[in-house]
Amino acid sequence: MKNVSPPAFQPLYQQIKTLITKALSQGEWHAGEPLPSEADLAARYGVSQGTVRKALNDMAYQNVLVRQQGKGTFVASHVSEDRRYHFTCIASDRGGKTYPTPEILDFGRDKADAAAARKLGVGSGALLYVIRRLMRVKGRPIVYDESRVPAALFKGLNLAVLTEQESMLYRTFEVAFGVRIVRAQERIKAVAADARVAANLEIPVGTPLLRIERIAYTFDDKPVELRRSHCNTDAYHYRAKIN
Questions:
Q1: What are the tens digits of pLDDT across the range 199-222?
Q2: If we measure between CA atoms, which residue out of 107, 147, 134 comes closest to residue 201?
Q3: Helix axes 12-25, 49-61, angle to 10 degrees
Q4: Going by C-beta distance under 8 Å and a sequence separation of 6 or more, which residues neighbour residue 165?
Q5: How far apart are CA 234 and CA 143, in angstroms?
Q6: What are the start-end ranges of the E strands in 79-182?
Q7: Rounded distance, CA 144 to CA 243, Å?
Q8: Interval 143-163: pLDDT, tens
Q9: CA–CA separation, 44 vs 173, rounded Å?
Q10: What is the rounded CA–CA span in Å between residue 68 and residue 170?
Q11: Is 0.90 topped by the overall pTM?
């Protein structure tokens, strides 16, 4: 390959994935934009088109890219309708798709404690924006969210910016700040609703809930959001796809 020095122990297509991911993280191609053709990428990196194709297919499988027959390869976007709810994993027990409506409850500021600082890769005491939301299904509150993001990464984030993007966080991050969420890591535990969560979900204190703790990442495995969600599962369940 030309002018590159990825780890030699990686398969060649993995090395190409690493280089394409680096270009994405540096903003060479933005969300929704097309990548160069396989032939152009092969020439750029000095490898075969088959190697490039395998790298692109793998990135499409991971939902970083979108491959469209006859049109090319595009950077996946949270703005497109088919990915609007890509990271929303709540489904009705009756089956069918569930499209919760987000509602901003509060937007504030906080300082990162040691645990949050470690998970977000910021200094202890760094300024964080705190966003609290409800996710409603047919008007009923189902999920109570509390997200923390580094203020330094989202300069200018406020309630008006969130509202402009229909209170969809990942869409806001992408459209307003050029930060795209590509994966998330979650921990799930059964808990009882405390007074604050119960009041927001309009349920009795002590109601069994699922607590979902998420770290969301952009390119290069950079953490950009800590989220704690409480989900009322009396008529809904948490759905995950494991590859």
A1: 999 999 999 999 999 999 998 889
A2: 134
A3: 60
A4: 171, 172, 175, 176
A5: 12
A6: 90-92, 101-111, 127-137, 140-150
A7: 27
A8: 999 999 999 999 999 999 999
A9: 30
A10: 23
A11: no
